[in-house]
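Project standup — Tuesday

K.O.: blocked on the structure for the chain from last sprint. Re-posting the sequence here as requested.
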Amino acid sequence: MPEGPEVRRQADRLAKARFADGHTLCVHHQLYGRWSMARAGSKAEGTRTLRAALRTDTIGALLWSATDVHVLDDADLAAHPYLRKLGPDVLDATTTSDLVLARLGDARFARRSLAGLYLDQGFLAGIGNYLRTETLWYAGVDPEARPVDLAPAELAGRRVYVCARQRAERR
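H.V.: unblocked you, prediction finished:
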């Protein structure tokens, strides 16, 4: 699950290169991990530490400086202690405003502030601090408001979710 639009774009670039082999590469970039693409056969050079290299006959994807890297099969992925707790990916096509609205009303989330929920990857995965801040400001919603305290019209308008998705997709 990518964190934020920048990482999502990197994941999309990797997906286009088709490195699929039945495994999942789970990477936490922290603040300094980064991917680069290179032609096959070119030498990996840089001042950062090379953490992973994925190669085909024509292209290579190089992961630099990330400190948390795991190769997982399907069973490992389902049992991963962090990944199994993630909420829906805000940029996934299956994450709809109706789904987010239902989660806002869920007892696990309804009494928490929106500011806190938007940073909780178990509520919605992929929203970081700057998207949370911009989204709530743009939607005109008090960050300390709790879903349970919002008027039905505010929730029914789905402003909080729609703004988050639009802001994330623009990045």
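K.O.: great, moving the ticket to review. The radius of gyration is 18 Å. The domain at 87-170 is CATH 1.10.8.50 (Helicase, Ruva Protein; domain 3).
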